[in-house]
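Example (one chain per record):
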Amino acid sequence: SSATLADINTALNTVVADSIMNVANRLKAADDVWAEANKIVAEIVAKHGKVVYNGNNYDAAWKQIAAKRGLPN
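Predicted structure:
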């Protein structure tokens, strides 16, 4: 396709930058940076961990794993 990906890349970069800024603000405000960092990571993994998959996303087995995790596929 001849369509440009610039617009979607801009949107994705904006979302990522906003998330990074939120983490940075929490770390700046923390008395114990390491404890806050661990808390942030735990929250992110708890909230988004079920979508992390390090296997072959093109394998048919992924559809079964996604269904087991309650993810749309």
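Caption: The chain has a mean pLDDT of 93.
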